[in-house]
Amino acid sequence: MRYARTTVVGGALATVMTLGLLAGTATAGSPAAESAESEKARESSLTGSATMDRGKNGDRVSFSFDAHGFAPTNVRGTSRGTFRFSHHSADGKRGATFEGRIDCLLTGGPIATATGIITRSDHHDRRVIGKRVGFTVYDNGKHDRVGYSWAVDTIPTMNVPQCLSAAPYETAKSGDFTVQHVLPPTPVEEGR
User: Fold this and answer.
1) In whole angstroms, what is the distance from residue 170 CA to residue 178 CA?
2) How far apart are CA 155 and CA 151, in angstroms?
3) First-last CA distance in the chain
4) 51 and 14 in one domain?
5) Residues 15 and 71 in one domain
6) Cα 150 from Cα 156, distance rounded (Å)
7) Each residue of 146-188: pLDDT tens digit?
C-alpha cells in the first residue's frame, strides 16, 4: 500500500512538472514573448512619472520621462524622447512647468542619467528656453529616487554638458520610474 501511494504521488508530481515545463516553454516561445525580448534588448530607456516627497513645506514637485536610445559614446548617439517637470508651492502661487526633448541618455543597471533641452515653459525667466538640464534616476523599485542639475545652480545661468546631472537625492512619494539598461552596440555590431 505504501509503495502504491508513492508511485501515485510520484506519477502526479512528474505529470505536474511536465505540464509546468510545457507551459513555461509555450509561454517563453510565444511570438509576444519573443517580440518583447527583442524589443527589450534593443536599447536603453528611462520611462515613467513620479511626484516627490517634500515633507512639511507641501511643495508639489513631479517628473515625467519617456527617454530611449544610447548616449554618443563609441557609436553614434541615438538618445531621444521627452521630459516634463514641475515645481509649485503648496498654495499654487509660485512655480513653473518645463517640457523638453531628451538629447542624451546613459544607463548603468538601475540608474539612468539623462539630459535634455527645455522647449516650453511658463517660467517667468524666458532664458530657460533652450537650456540643457540634467536628471539622474535610481529605479529602486518601491522608493525610486531622482536628482537634477539645478540643485547646484539656477536653470537660466547653468551650462550642463550632455549626460551630466546630480546624484539622485530626492525620494519619490508616488509613481514609478523604470530604467531599462542595455549595453550599446559596438561599432562592429552596428555595421552588421
Assistant:
1) 16
2) 9
3) 65
4) no
5) no
6) 9
7) 999 998 889 999 999 999 999 999 999 999 999 999 987 766 5
Per-residue pLDDT tens digits for 113-122: 999 999 999 9
Mean pLDDT for 58-66 is 94
**Are the CB atoms for 113 and 163 separated by under 8 Å?**
yes
Count of the separate structural domains present in the chain: 2
Exposure letters 109-146 (e unless 16+ CB within 10 A, then b)? ebbbbbbbebeebebeeeebeebbbbbbbbbeeeebbb
Specify if 180 maps to a domain.
yes
Share of the chain above pLDDT 70, in %: 72
Q: Does one domain contain both 84 and 64?
A: yes
Domain that holds residue 71: 43-187
Residue 114 domain flag: yes
